[in-house]
Write a structure and sequence with these properties.
Length: 83
């Protein structure tokens, strides 16, 4: 069974023609295993965590336009020479 450490952070874009059914699309994503961490209905996006093997599954759901893995970055410490 996968654990939280196996999951990746994703951003899901809801298709324009499904924006009025945003709660329904979000519910379908949850049912498919997405642990939703944020809903931005006014932007038509959700953020969440899911196991990478399930990315294709949530990407093919009705109302989903795109699924992208969220990028990360690390700033150097304030006292580093890069600052």
């Amino acid at each position: 069974m996968p654990n939280d450490a196996d999951e990746v952070e994703v951003i899901v874009a809801v298709a324009d023609d499904h924006l009025e059914r945003f709660p329904e699309v979000a519910g379908g994503l949850r049912a498919a295993g997405l642990r939703v961490t944020g809903e931005q209905a006014h932007l038509g996006t959700l953020t969440g965590r899911i196991h990478p093997a399930r990315l294709g599954e949530i990407g093919s759901l009705s109302g989903v336009q795109a699924v992208e893995q969220a990028g990360t970055f690390q700033l150097p410490p304030p006292d580093s020479d890069v600052q």
